[in-house]
């Protein structure tokens, strides 16, 4: 809607992950380095966690673009509400092998034969499991067992686990101790810092031909950071709405107040959301939160994965109450936007009639 008005060649703040818009922040650069380190090692597990909307899927898609196709055969699994038997069936089917109406032994034989064939061709298999926090302990144990396939002491299947912070908590369970010994590196992807938030916005706008129209006041970027906490998906949602509002008002300069108005409107539409309208601009916030939350390379054994923070029952109830409030008020989001558009159109129509 606003793209043509501002001379943009595409939608700069789409919600769906797009590796073409990959922003090389310090945190994302470190996470990519860990994944590439894992590829170089050619064995074991790499674990990358991050908050919802932190850019994990975009990171994976970027990695897939850079993989040496002649050496690595990647398979990505996104649907992870699976038990152990279903996990094996999905992995086998993802490699293009028949997986219906056969027993577990047959699936294992087919998969091992396929991995041996890839090895004979000078290639190796990479399994990427997205949303891995949804996996149960038995399903993860199945993945560990698959990593036992070896030829000449070399592992034929490597696995990357990508998930939300709950995955880190899952790794701390007693039954995960054998898997933790296979993890060679773990990293937690944090939010963007204040300066990175501005560069992220300018990066995405520049990708679609932005020529400083609309322009942004300096304080507008500060309010965007304060309202979103530096989470890329939240930034996309907010800035997209800010640009829409600026277009409807025929503005070519986005002020701090414009950001505040849209952020306040969104908070009313979606109900209370912790951290969305958090620290005020100028509050003491870490200059680069991504570095304060990153994990060091995992060492063999119990120290391989950083321990997640404990949540009290009260905190969990607060989170559930927030989600219920979001669901309750989400239906009004579209109608609120339409009403605002109609009000502006009504004002324009009245101005034309008076003139």
Strand order of the largest sheet: 2-3-6-1-7
Strand content: 5-15%
* SSE-based structural type: alpha/beta
Largest sheet: 5 strands, parallel
Helix segment count?
A: 13
Ranges where pLDDT stays below 50 over 5 or more residues in a row are 275-310, 326-333
What does this structure look like?
This protein has 355 residues and is an alpha/beta fold. Helices cover 50% and strands 11% of the residues. The chain has helices spanning 26-41, 56-66, 84-94, 104-120, 137-146, 166-171, 177-180, 194-207, 218-228, 232-248, 256-270, 289-292, 313-354; strands spanning 45-50, 72-77, 124-129, 150-151, 154-155, 157-163, 183-189, 215-216, 253-254. The strands form three sheets. It has a five-stranded parallel β-sheet, with helices on both faces. Strands 4-5 form a two-stranded antiparallel ribbon. β4 and β5 form a beta hairpin. The longest helix is centred in the C-terminal third of the chain and has 42 residues, at 313-354.
Features:
355 residues; single chain; 9 strands; two-stranded antiparallel sheet; 13 helices; 50% helix; alpha/beta; five-stranded parallel β-sheet
Summarize the structure.
The chain is α/β, with parallel strands linked by helices. The chain contains 13 helices and nine strands.
């Amino acid at each position: 809607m606003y793209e043509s008005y501002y001379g943009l060649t595409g939608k700069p703040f789409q919600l769906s992950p797009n590796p073409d818009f990959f922003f090389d922040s310090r945190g994302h650069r470190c996470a990519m380095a860990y994944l590439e380190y894992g590829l170089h090692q050619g064995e074991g597990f790499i674990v990358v966690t991050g908050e919802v909307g932190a850019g994990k899927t975009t990171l994976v898609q970027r990695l897939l673009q850079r993989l040496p196709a002649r050496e690595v055969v990647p398979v990505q699994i996104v649907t992870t509400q699976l038990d152990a038997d279903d996990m094996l069936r999905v992995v086998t089917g993802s490699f293009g092998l028949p997986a219906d109406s056969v027993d577990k032994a047959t699936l294992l034989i087919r998969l091992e034969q396929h991995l041996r064939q890839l090895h004979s061709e000078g290639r190796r298999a990479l399994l990427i499991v997205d949303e891995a926090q949804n996996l149960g302990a038995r399903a993860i144990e199945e993945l560990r067992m698959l990593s036992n396939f070896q030829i000449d002491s070399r592992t034929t299947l490597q696995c990357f686990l990508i998930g939300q912070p709950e995955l880190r908590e899952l790794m701390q369970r007693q039954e995960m101790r054998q898997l933790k010994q296979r993890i060679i590196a773990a990293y937690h992807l944090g939010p963007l810092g204040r300066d990175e938030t501005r560069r992220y916005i300018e990066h995405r706008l520049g990708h679609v031909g932005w020529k400083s129209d609309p322009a942004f006041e300096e304080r507008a970027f500060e309010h965007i950071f304060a309202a979103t906490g530096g989470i890329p998906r939240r930034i996309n949602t907010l800035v997209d709405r800010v640009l829409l509002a600026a277009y409807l008002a025929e503005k070519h300069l986005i002020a701090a107040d414009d950001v505040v108005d849209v952020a306040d409107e969104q908070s009313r539409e979606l109900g209370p959301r912790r951290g969305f309208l958090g620290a005020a601009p100028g509050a003491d916030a870490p200059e680069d939160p991504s570095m304060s939350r990153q994990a060091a390379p995992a060492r063999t054994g119990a120290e391989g994965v950083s321990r997640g923070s404990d949540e009290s029952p009260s905190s969990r109830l607060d989170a559930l109450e927030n989600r219920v409030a979001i669901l309750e008020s989400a239906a009004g989001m579209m109608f609120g936007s339409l009403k605002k558009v109609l009000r502006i159109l009504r004002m324009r129509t009245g101005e034309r009639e008076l003139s």
